[in-house]
Amino acid sequence: MVLVAMAATFMAMMDSYIVNVAVPSIRADLDASVSAVEMTVGGYILVYGLFLVTGGRLGDIVGYKRMFLAGLGLFTVASLACGIAPNPESLIAFRCVQGFSAALFFPQILSIIQTSFEGARRDRALALFGVTIGLAAISGQLIGGVLVHLDLFGWGWRPIFLVNIPLGIATMVGAWLTMPGTKGAQRPRLDLPGVGLLTVALLLLSFPLAEGRNAGWPWWCFAMMVLSVPFFAAFGRWERKLAASGGQPLVSPALLKLRGYRSGNLVFLAFFACNAGLFFVLAVQLQSGLGYSALEAGLLFAPLGIAFTAVSLFVPKIVAKLGLHILTAGYGLNALGYLVLLLTALAAGDDVNGPMLIPALVVIGTGQGLGVSPLLGSALAEVPPQEAGSAAGVLETVGQLGMSVGVALVGLLYFSTLDDSTTQHDYAHAFTVTLVLNLGLSLLAMVFVPSLRKAAEAQMAAAGAQ
Questions:
Q1: How confident is the model over 69-103, as pLDDT tens digits?
Q2: Structural domains for the chain
């Protein structure tokens, strides 16, 4: 069962990265504009983030296994449609369907882990979940590059989507045979007004964050983000009113009263903002500032990914010895890595290059490997089983928002500091300035770790006393 869930995790995460290296091939084959190709990448991520909470709640309603199979089936069909798309418009549309279907099945993975395992078995499952995410991030672009390079059957970029068909079918068969038919609770219907309000609020916030930089941050980007505030407020009021009247809200207001869950979401937000910002600015700096090829830049991320994956494998054993103090160690080491990265850039000045950054990236990857899996388990420790789906969906949505916010903030600071200059000195200066922001975000994540750790430890102690 765990391997089946990890296969689905790999597919969902890989499809966030695999298209990047196929951009030139897609543009040439479909005569697509730059903006159309960007929407091919961004449409998947945007729609995926919009419907994670809804997908999680649907799992609570109809059952995690049933929703997992439905979402994965739609994802497989959408992958086929992407692979035979005749024009840019249809490819964008089918990528959005892919994102929607991923939002249906992905939250069920954490829900199934949360409700089907306890203690050390849950720790091992969450560690494997973290390893899978790391492997997908590392190998997504590599797999895409290999498939495009091989040009199987003369199909160019299309196999990057078609490869999901046998994987999807095999995973569905495995899920049907091994996954338990668990669901959080019997619910008469979905909170449709809540779905509508939250979707509009997330769209108003996420779309300008995703497209603002490419559009040059016009006034409507800021107007949309401001307009999202009353929609989030209206969503909160509706959920409280529905809960008070005995209804079943999309997101239970009681979740936000759980100290560990609340702190976990804040760590998620800062952590993913920090790391997505780093990945973005480092890729730009290596290729535009230092003239590295896409392959050379991608290989420089490998030490971070390898450290993350290797350390994640040992997390259950470390937790057995250190307990949840591993959270403090992980996010402290993550922040230390950012400090070393900043000091390296300051010391090297205009002569900064990729190999100089590898030691700091290894430290960052090690910290992430220690921190990600325990973060998931700790954030969900207090959540009652009947709320597991929506709670996992909210957590994953916050992570997606953190990534969007991080890329937007770091990108805005980097390019405004660069100010259209192309000298090596200015690139190095802009890179160094943005590393200060990344360090600040890594320290912000650390601020909320003690509260998260104490709440999770209290929950574990209470569970052990029963």
A1: 999 999 999 999 999 999 989 999 999 999 999 99
A2: 1-185 (1.20.1250.20), 193-199+220-250 (no CATH), 254-459 (1.20.1250.20)
